Amino acid sequence: MIDKKISVLIVDDSITIRSLMSLALRQDPRISVVGTAATALDARDAIIRLRPDVITLDVEMPKMNGIEFLDKIMRLRPMPVVMVSGLTSNGTNLALQALEIGAVECVAKPQQIDGIKSFAGLADTIVRAASAKIRRRGQATLELPPLISPNFSRKQALPIVAVGASTGGVEALIELLKSFPENCPPTLITQHMPRQFSENFARRLNQVSKPHVLLASELSVLETGKVFVAPGGDRHLCIETMGPEGKYVCRLVYGEPVNGHRPSVDELFFSVSHAAPQNAIGVILTGMENDGAKGLLAMRKAGARTLGQDAATSVIYGMPKAAFDIGAVEKQLPLSQIGPAVMKLAENFSLENIH
Known about the structure:
Blueprint: E1 6-11, H1 15-26, E2 31-37, H2 40-50, E3 54-58, H3 66-76, E4 81-86, H4 89-101, E5 105-109, H5 122-130, E6 160-165, H6 169-178, E7 187-191, H7 195-208, E8 212-215, E9 226-229, E10 235-242, E11 247-254, H8 265-275, E12 280-284, H9 293-302, E13 305-309, H10 319-325, E14 331-333, H11 335-352
Parallel strand pairs: 1-2, 1-3, 3-4, 4-5, 6-7, 6-12, 7-9, 8-9, 12-13, 13-14
Antiparallel strand pairs: 10-11
Helix pairs in contact: 3-4, 4-7, 6-11, 8-9, 9-10
GO molecular function, one term: protein-glutamine glutaminase activity
Protein name: Protein-glutamate methylesterase/protein-glutamine glutaminase
Active site: 166, 192, 291
């Protein structure tokens, strides 16, 4: 029995890009390109007529841009959408906005086109997107107040929080950090993301969060009220202790991709299990495949507390499931409850350290 192919509609105002993307995707036996469209209006009609499984959508288009059209899709007919963004400052900002609205993933449109090679990885992105669980825009999950004491002293020892996410992670991380108080424990985030987007992503998280969110840099000292985001590219985000006081610092480690990713969630979690074995909280959120599962298990075995996002609220219940299946997740929770749970665990850690 042959599995049904994933039907794809390509939306881009450039006939060259539409043609190259079509050619690239048609080489993959898992995918069927059912149509193309040059404008949002054409795309609307094609969606009604063709009912594609996945749409690729250009970020910057004339008349109605991709963001405006995406917002309409998520409100009226939610479906998996992969954004295609130019590598401009405006393009990367719009791409992150798209991920926040509900796009499953965003791929970079190369500045110099080299035939169908320019879209060599697009088919795998489409396949990941097809398995995503899409919520209608406006279906907000319940927000609970953070449980950490608002008067918690910055001098008290808070545990390190390490968070890993992939597909669907932009929206999830925004919701998670909105529930963190200004004096949250030092937090590290590895989100699978192209290098071009990570700086703007950290800036966006900082805009919506009470703690200070910034891109991790080599030897950044972990401090209360700061959240460090792994820069995409050729390095993994790890931590280690340094100096006579044993301060925790960020390390950006050159290395091969792990589980197909760089930065890798496993690399972050493994480093935390070594540097802060009994003084950490690990969180694994929505994402495809299994990056982070073994690292989270190492954290739990070392004495850390571990949480995983549940299936119902995950865009893709891949990474959390892989971690849960091997016993790495101490407790699964809906996304809206993870932030408060982290703060409650942090408060309990700190109380144990007061003698």
